[in-house]
Here is the input.
Amino acid sequence: MPDASNSPAQAPKEKEQLDVAIVGGGLAGLYAIHRLRGLGLTVRAYEAGSGVGGTWWENRYPGARVDTPSRSYTHLFGVDFPYPNPFCEWRENVKYFDWVADNFDLRRHIQFETEVKSLTWDESAGEWVIDTVGPDGPRTMRSRAVITAVGFLNRPNIAPFPGADTFSGKSWHTARWPENVDLKGKRVAVIGTGCTGYQMVPEIALEAEQVTVFQRTPQWLFPVPGYRSPFPPQVNWLDRNLPFHTNFMRARTCSLDRIANVAQIDPDFDDPYACNPINKRARDGCIDFLRGKLGDPALVAAMPPPHPVWSARAVVVDPEYSILDALMRDNVGLVTDGIERIEPRGIVAKNGTLHEADTIVYATGFHATEYLYPMTIVGRDGLTLEELWKKDGARAYLDATLSGMGANIVAVRPGKTE
Here is the structure.
């Protein structure tokens, strides 16, 4: 049986030659290990965390759940994992990654708790020089090729609100959720209403004494029946007994054609709130959902985003219980005036109102546009990644290779940092 522990792998000696070094042990990193090892290559992955899973190892806030079908969030070689839900919460996601790492014996190729600080291309040797910091301190390795599989939802972004350091209570970012935290009887302020905020608030509202939600920009909500519910037992039976059922269902849920049609811009369509007739129907459906859930006209007016549907990522919610139901609770309030400053007792909105709080939770997202931050990457002739991307932002040929970064660096979809 493979070793399921997360103890750091034995690092190769410096004279040992790696064919491929992989930065990250999440979805893409595990895939790269599996495929490259199958080609007979010498592979080593460096993972900053103590476990596999990437963003799902780090994001464990209440309500954390995939917003794309779980079947589409699997590797092709992992389709037989027995998912209990169509949209799994974070614990099931972690179980999947652990299952892949152990079932396919990938963990022994990963050096945990090791951060790659820099990658420098050595033109004369045709190799990457990799500087890492791990449990044994700084270390330098060399590899013929590097795959960066770090993702972009891993570096918390906390806006520098004036007075934040004076707050007398506790505060944290959602990606750094404290283990075993108890919010019973607490007044909680939540800053941010992206997908994370909308997922989290309904859960902590069931526990906290008071939840105050600070919203800068609302998000479009798409109700999906059964979003929070398990599969009916018939689906699990089919997964176990019908050949290739898991493959067919995975293929079916991976299609993005409907989203593409909604987001397509029709230059002849004249509407200030939508970009084509299908987009308008989708918007109208979202507005009807808001009106059906929120009886307060002021809340209905506060919740539609200023942009067309799918011009920014929408949020999938369960029609039975979601952020909208939470906002109708007596212990949940919505603040849309903006934040002026943070004081020892709480948060002062721009209208001058002090909202007292015992805890502040930052649901403020990540440095998603600073792809590969804060790793230093230097390619041919001293070209840095910052210089390469200075003009047009993160980009790569075929979402894979980077010009001027040696022949061998591969970045995992840097164009997908929207």
In short: The mean pLDDT is 90. The two ends are 41 Å apart (CA to CA).
